[in-house]
Structure of Glycosyltransferase:
Amino acid sequence: EIAVRLTASGRLAPCNPYTRQDTNIRLPLHILIHHSQSLQRLPFKNWMVVAIDEQLRDYCKEKGINHYYRPVVIPGTQANTGDNHAISAMKFEILEEFLQLGWDVLLSDVDIITVQNPFDFLVRDSDVEGMSDGYDASTAYGEIYGVDDASMGWSRYAQGHKHMALNSGLFWLKANARTIRLMQRIAKRVNTERQWDQSVYNQEIFNLAHGEYTSPQVSVRVMDIYLFINSKTLFKYVRKLPLDQQKLPVMMHMNYHPEKTERMKAALKYFVEGDKKALDAFPDGSM
C-alpha cells in the first residue's frame, strides 16, 4: 500500500503494497514544501512523489524525497484548461500502473496537510474510498429530496437521491480488476473529451448502468468528513465548534480556497502546534 502525489515543478505524493500518490501539478513549490513537511514529521514512510518533469525530479533528488520520475504528455483535449486541471487529468493512467502491480494506492493532491497516518484510518471495505466535497452528513453521504410537480395532480410528489461529488484529489483505491477498469475508462475519456477530470471521475463511479451503458461496478465508501476534511468544512463549520467537539483531522484539503499556503500553515499551527487562534484571521470563504 502506498501514498502517491503527482506533481510538476511543485507537486508531491506518498508510497508500499499499499501506496500513496500525490497529484497537484503546477502548484507553487512552497505549497509542495508545506505538504511534504507535514508528511515528514510522521513515522510512516510508504509515500512518494510522482514527478512528471525534470525540475521536480531534481528537487526530489536534492531533498532526498521518495519519488518516481514519470513524464506525461498532455492531450489536446486538456490543452488550455489550466496547468493544474490538465496535468491532474493525467494521473489516472499512472494510478493504473500501480494497480496493475497489485499496489493499493492512496492518491493525494499537494494542497493537503497530513496530521496523522492516513493508513491507520482507512476502512478498506470498498473498491474506492474517497474524500467528499460535502460539508455535512446529508451533502457528503447522501439524502432524499422531494420533487413537486403540481401538473401531475395526485402523483405530484416524487423523490430523488443526491450527494455532493467525491473529490478527485484525495482517494484510496483497492487494487483489483474493477478499479483498474475504472482508471482505464477515466483515462480514455480525459484523453478524448474536454472534460474536468473530477466530473469524469464521479460520472464513471456513480452513473447507473442502463441500455448499452455498463458501469465499472466499483463499490464506494465516503471518508469521514471530519477526519479527511475539506477546507469549507474546516473554516465554515468545524473551527466554530467547541474544542472538545473538534476531531483531530487526518488530512486537510484546502480545495475550497485559493490562498492555500497561508491556510495550510495556519491549520498546522491550530491542530499540531496547539495555537487555537491560528485560524481566526481567515474568513469562511476566499479572501
Q: What stands out?
A: Residues 2-135+166-271 form a domain with the Spore Coat Polysaccharide Biosynthesis Protein SpsA; Chain A fold (CATH 3.90.550.10). The chain is about 30% helix and 20% strand.
